[in-house]
Write a structure and sequence with these properties.
With 366 residues, the chain is α+β, with helices and mostly antiparallel strands. Among the domains are: 77 residues, Arc Repressor Mutant, subunit A; 96 residues, no CATH class. Helix content is 38%, strand content 19%. The chain has 13 helices and 14 strands. Strands 11-12-13-14 form a 4-stranded antiparallel β-sheet. Helix 9 crosses helix 11.
């Protein structure tokens, strides 16, 4: 087991978290390779979460660039710890998921027929499949009704039989997909699982112990075929990761990185996505910045405190508030709230906030 670093402070962890996550500006392929996974969300307020996440890290990034360039990038839509975009290297670690053999015989038969249809066509739109098979409807996870063929396409995609080749008006277009063989020995399987844990840790570190446990458990979505082995994978991770005990909390991060490095904090103001790596783990967020951020898009209006799609507002290495942005009649509108009830008094903050809004306008094309 690695020895604890006793010289790390919470201020150092906070600066470390910001410096290692905001690594831009770089190219889109390099940012994707560094992350391994970018969470996706369909809400556009003022842009989708994946675009808002990439914006401060990719030079000259514009809203929609990921979708426009998807077919030219080595990435796939897939489920990691959430649904989003994974690099080909990460996708190979997760598949084959070996789920199809566990399906009921009737579903396997329908999937076989559907897969043959997709192979004949090359690529298919769900409406095209529905017209051909007309399987009826099923109840989806949100209590509504959806096409049974669309539901089966989703299951086949998750099972690795299909891949998303592009989207048309937000609709997934599918093509056949094949994967290599599953690991034939325990050591190779463990190496794959550990590599997936490392991908997740690299993206979200430094992590408090409870969040590390949650993150590793969420890999059951990435590798459902190995979900029973994730407990031991967590134990192995704690043995190899760098760690420190700070303010009665155990923290973990990649062993090759130093949390005590002295990086000068950027003076920039940055609006972060609700699922940005700096924001995603609400437990860590509250430990580092001392207040609770909540995503309120699905909260009743009367109970919202921050706003429908509040974007945490980072200044230097502190999250000092949040912003709600919208585009109306071709103009960007922004309102802000602050943890201290008012903005920082430093004139540099106002200047940097104006610069961030200018960057946001270019990003949105308004």
């Amino acid at each position: 087991m690695r020895a604890y670093n006793k010289s790390i402070t919470l201020d150092a962890l906070r600066a470390f978290a910001v410096a290692r996550s905001l690594f831009g500006p770089t190219t889109l392929p390099r940012a994707l390779e560094r992350f391994g996974f970018v969470q996706a969300d369909p809400i556009r307020a003022p842009a989708r979460a994946q675009d808002l996440t990439l914006r401060p890290r990719v030079k000259d990034y514009r809203a929609g660039d990921l979708e426009r360039r998807y077919s030219t990038l080595e990435i796939h839509e897939d489920t990691f710890v959430n649904y989003g975009f994974v690099t080909s290297a990460v996708e190979r670690l997760m598949h084959p998921r070996e789920l199809v053999s566990r399906w009921p015989a009737a579903r396997r038969k329908r999937a076989h027929l559907l897969l043959e249809f997709v192979r004949e066509r090359g690529t298919v739109h769900p409406r095209e499949v529905d017209r051909h098979f007309a399987h009826g409807t099923v109840t989806n996870y949100w209590g509504g009704s959806s096409s049974a063929t669309t539901h089966l396409l989703d299951m086949m995609h998750y099972g690795g039989l299909l891949r998303v080749v592009r989207r048309e008006a937000g609709i997934r277009i599918y093509a056949p997909h094949e994967h290599g063989d599953a690991p034939s020995d325990v050591a190779t399987r463990h190496a794959r699982i550990d590599a997936l844990v490392d991908v997740a840790v690299r993206k979200y570190a430094p992590l408090p112990a409870a969040s590390l446990s949650t993150l590793v458990r969420r890999l059951r979505y990435a590798v459902p075929q190995w979900r029973g082995e994730l407990g031991k994978a967590l134990h192995r991770a704690k043995q190899r990761l760098a760690q420190a005990h700070v303010d009665r909390v155990d923290w973990y991060w990649p062993a090759e990185e130093s949390a005590s490095r002295k990086d000068d904090a950027s003076s920039a103001v940055i609006l972060l996505a609700p699922f940005d790596p700096l924001v995603w783990d609400r437990r860590r967020f509250e430990l580092l910045w001392g207040w609770a951020y909540r995503f309120e898009a699905y909260t009743p209006i009367s109970k919202r405190k921050l706003g429908y799609y509040a974007l945490p507002l980072l200044w230097r290495d502190r999250v000092v508030g949040w912003g709600n942005l919208s585009v109306q009649n071709g103009e960007l509108h922004a309102t802000f709230g602050y943890v201290a009830s008012k903005p920082p008094r430093d004139r540099a903050f106002r200047r940097e906030l104006d610069a961030e809004l200018d960057r946001m306008r270019r990003f949105l094309g308004v």
